[in-house]
Each structure stands twice: as structure tokens, then as C-alpha cells.
Amino acid sequence: MLSKIQTIRRVTDRLLTGMGLTCGVLFLALGFFITIDVLGRKSGLFGTRVTDEIGGYFLALAGSWGLAYALRMDAHVRIDVLLPHMPRRLRAFMDFLAMAFMALFAFLISAKLWQMVSQSIEYKSTSNSYLLAPLWIPQSLLALGFSALAFTAVFTLVLTWAEGLLELAQSIRFSRKEGQVAPVSSTPLSTAPAASADPPSEPQR
Fold first, then answer.
1. For the whole model, what pTM was predicted?
2. Fewest CB atoms less than 10 Å from the CB: which of 56, 87, 114, 153?
3. Which of 180, 160, 179 is nearest to 168 (CA)?
4. Helix (H/G/I), strand (E/B), else coil: 87
5. Pick the residue with more confidence: 153 or 172?
């Protein structure tokens, strides 16, 4: 079971790393696109007229896809006021509870987003802009990002639970080894040296 979990962990880390790199490339491309559009407008040579819309799509995609990667890398901002003063077991329980709430939050958001995607496909909704882009495309990419966040949170919970069970099993095994008593000698009485039947000699005077 642990080998399967480790295999899933490696595959998940690779996918999330790819999503994180995609977010970085999108932010970089968005920066170049906005810079070129601003220079074109200032010089009066050209203008794209879709900078706001494209920028909104890029930000939504890069922001949502980066959430799962940041969660897996433990890069989200945390404000710890009481947590450092808690006992070790209580601190671990609070971390587990926080991850469970994260999984619930991401699942609810992704479910609503996929429902919105289905409605956009049904009504053939498009953006009210120059591009008239089908809304189900950016909405599905946004839903995919939150679905990845929900999967990462659930997988982190399962991984934490499995590692906790493994640590508990190892501690029990170690305590059993430490508590072993040296075996008592099972030498039969017949092999023990027999006592001499002769009475002890009297000391010479």
C-alpha cells in the first residue's frame, strides 16, 4: 500500500510542478503582452483592444492553477499565533483539521464552477467583449485549477494519515524490541552437576 502511495505521490508532484511552471510562463507572457500593448498605444502605432480580457483570463488561470502547487509545496501564507504554543499532537491535529477544511472549500468551489461550465455550454454563453470568447473555456480551466486544489488537499490528508500509521507501527515495534527480556536458561536438571553424596571431611587437628 505504501509503495502505491509513493508512486501516486511522485506522479502528483510532477503534475503539480508542471502546473506551477505553466503559471510562471503565463505570468511572464502576460507581462510581455501588456508591455507591448502599452508601448503600441503610447506610440499610436497599434492597439490590441483585448488587453483587459486576455489579462483577466491569464490571471484567473495562473492564479487557480498555482493554488494546488503552492499547497503541495507548503508555500501558502500562514499566521501562527497559538499553534507554536500547542503540544505536538494537538498541533498535528490542527494541521490535519485545516487541511480537511481546505479540501472541503476547494471541493465546493470546484463543484459550483463545473456547474457553471455546464450552464455556459448549454446556453452557448460568450463574453460581452471584442473577442466574444466562449465562456466555458476559461471557466473550465478555472474549475480544473480548483479541482486540482481539492485533489491535492485530499491526497495530503491521505498521505499524512498513512505516514502517521507507519510512524505509530514503527514506534510500537521499537517499544516491543526494547521491552524484550533475556530468555531464562532451560537447562534440564539432569544435566546439572550432581552434588557429592560423601559427607564433608573433618578438618585435621
1. 0.75
2. 87
3. 160
4. coil
5. 153
